[in-house]
# Entry
Amino acid sequence: MLKKSNLILVTLGIALFAFVPNCKKGAATATLASDAASRVYVAPGEKDEVYAFLSGGFSGQMSVYGIPSARLFKIIPVFSVFPENGYGFDEETKDMLKTTHGYVPWDDSHHVEASMTDGKQDGRWMFLNANNTPRLARIDLKTFETKEILEIPNTAGNHASPFATENTEYLMAATRFSVPVPQASVAIDSFSKGGFKGTVTMVKVDKNTGRLSIELQVLVPGFDYDLSHCGKKKSHDWCFFSSYNSEQAHKMLEVGASKKDKDFILAFNWVRAKECKDQGKAYNFGGEYVNNFHDENKPAVSTKLSGVKMLNPKDCPGMMYYMPTPKSPHGTDVDSTGEYIVGGGKLASVIPVHSFSKMMEVKDKKEHHSTEIEGIPVLKYESTLAGEVQKPCLGPLHTEFDGQGYAYTSCFVSSEVVKWKLGTWEVVQHLPAYYSVGHLSIVGGSSTEPYGKYLIAMNKITKDRYLPVGMELPQSAQLYDISSGKAELLSDFPTVGEPHYSQMIPAKLIMDKTAKLFPLEENKHPYATKNENDAKIVRLGSTIHIYMTAIRSHFKPDIIEARTGETLYFHVTNLEQDYDIPHGFAIGGAPNMTNLLIMPGETRTFKWVAPKPGVYPFYCTDFCSALHQEMQQYIRVNP
Amino acid sequence: MKTLLFQTLSKRNRLLILGVGLVLISVYLIPIWSISIAAPQYPEGLGMQIWINKITGATPYDLKNINLLNHYIGMQEIVSESIPELLFMPYVLGYLIFGAFITELYPKVGMAILGIINLIIVGLVGLSDFWRWEYNYGHNLNPEAPIIVEGMAYQPPLLGCKVMLNITACSYPSYGGIILGLSLAVLVYILWDENRRKKTNAV
# Structure
């Protein structure tokens, strides 16, 4: 008896001994480049090679990192207020967060898309989706600021968004949560009876100004549309949307939406859709939405719009096809040649790859149709299939391409990135990720010309990777070098919010075009004060407009008097014309208003209602000069 | 000596003087002097250019930023309007160019000598005036300035580089100044050449 238990203990001990060191070694060095530190080291004074723009997930923001150093450069506020610089609070930017639901100062931002010309990144704009309150935003890469936000009506959960066509003619936005369209109080179990619908929205991007407008919506069956990518080169006219819950389950989706062996990738010919619209086949449909535009150095203008053109697939034959794809596909990614459409079935045991040429060949031949759903032909799985990557990993999600004939797919469940070859569908490398990788991104990996040097994997879980900081661990991403035959792990880095997806762009495309200041002579702000001698206080009844200037190291006017209850607008113009000299502006105890950071040559407005009598200091919050600490003054509030 | 003064310039030397006159016109269009400023907080540097009729920054914003720096030590603001020399300098240059053209009508060595004397006077007066101007800016400081360093003046160098607090200021002729210098050299060469010709002719 004793002998036996000893034996068990010894066996266990040996097993543990054998297992533990191996496991540790395995996790730490499986693919780590031996000189990884020097390959991510960017010496003082040198610059990174690549900009990485990461969506912030539940932070609603976008962050900018340098690659390979993985240093955080900036957080660009997009859908969430940002007390650090006053975004969403001041008179200039508060209207950026207006929606038909009112002021929504937060969102859930998943996908970053780069503007493209001829399928190549052009470094002009970044686009970001808001999943919760359907919106999409345009961020200008000259100023790295949010310039425009467009609300998407007749949809819920703007998840498959914003994916751009080859020349950024359009951004696509599709429903994640199908809902009654138009909204109504409908019994939830009518979902499966066609009571719920999805929409695919074509958002037009003006090619010169970037201004956004809704061109058209297409009413599609009530599935959950998850992700999208648009075609390139020969597949230029098409965008592809993955969908799940084709079962149309409405409770316990975990089980209900995972029953069928295959869901669909929706192939959408947007050129055809526009044609049908121009032929008058779309009809007027309701839907209120808001467009917020922040012109350079002017207050944002929020415009309420109403109505869209709606198109039914049955009225526009040849516009949409369903390609069956196993199983609850997440990613739908088009390779650099435009030929292969890779599905990422998160519950699938293969990575299915559709062939665009095959699809074109069979799409209108009845013998290749299995059925039709609400006017959309369903093609047979085998008819469009180019091949399957067999047993690549568990939970394949999203694929990007290196331009060398290889694809990289993230695998959520088995926490790895698999590298495989297009055409032979052979897996050539497994790269462990730490842990539960969602999307991945290659520099230019979704364009026609990837700059296939770096790949980042964006993870959901970081147990054991960093010093613990309480229950919520840092969100994280990992950097791999994929420039040689064998991809190597270079570094781990924590991120802001959840790094859901990213676009990486070679630095040389952007760095020389960034703005350094706003030229004062071009400042068109209605409350700008371009010369200290013009600083003044204008009273209009119980409203006081203070035309204020800020320059190293003082404000003018510097003494202000008001009465309790009066409304004061501090229109502060930063008179500096020097690179990197913003001034801050904050008033002690100001409620409902945060700090302002005012860039050189910019005017921003701080609204303040004079509180109970007293003397209130205001001061510069951005360390501007040797006399920064002296850059302070007072407001006297009289009874 | 008198023979040399009234010796008619050779055809080539006349053309050279005409050339000097024409090239001097370009001095209206380019800076004559440049002062550059380097400091740790200005890794890209700041620059100031002195033209025949104005003072500008090397970039549209440099002069403003130099003045912003200077206000800490109480230096007067540098603006073209506060420098009266810039009002008559264009006429002095016009006089020199006019002289070159007159020489075409009256091509005597004496005119070249006059040109040399004029250029030297303009140069010496200009440089001493520039020095005086720098001296005034560097020493005439506001006693209420935020930063006062005992015994410290901020006169930039007339020629070369000088370190003042954490700032290195360098002062050199710019293209226009170089052209003025070269013009003088050409005239001196003509004088030397004519003198040699006279000797050759005499022998």
